[in-house]
Amino acid sequence: MLHLTIEVLPNSFHFCSIFQIDPNCDDSACALQFAGPWHVKIYNSCFKMSSPAIKHGVLIALQDLDPSSPLFKQGTSLRVTGKLDEYSVENALAVIVDGGFKLKIDVKHLRDLNLRIGSIYQFIGELLIEPNDESILQARVGRNVNGIDLNLYHQSLQLLKQFQENHVSDHVA
């Protein structure tokens, strides 16, 4: 059984309950069985669960994004920060830089973001890798982060990286 949490809002009160989805349902009926005295049946529908469609963006500095990185994979969800160096409205392509490292950003899905060269932006999106190992981040979220202290930001990324390395090695040992 698959266990999920759902909030149910009847007429004038609400309660939270754990329910189970019967994985053996067929196309004609599925049953939701609530933990408690409630029982709900849903007809002509089956729940099909899959992995989350949207993954969180892993924080990474542009300098750490190279072909030898374990995050340098097709479709990896990343969060990157850098100064806008180039922007083509016609192609919906931007280039951010940070410490001499560059990354192309596909911004065609960002409608309300006003991009200005020289400003600092943070993007979350999926990495697309071309056959020549050139990478493009297909951005789904973008925001202006002017005023961020990039030195302090890089220090925090290093501390986070160290913590994650120690945390993983503690669990392995």
Automatic annotation (TrEMBL):
Entry superkingdom: Eukaryota
GO cellular component: CST complex
InterPro entries (alphabetical): NA-bd_OB-fold, Ten1_animal_plant
Gene Ontology MF, one: telomeric DNA binding
GO process terms (BP): negative regulation of telomere maintenance via telomerase
Protein name in the entry: CST complex subunit TEN1
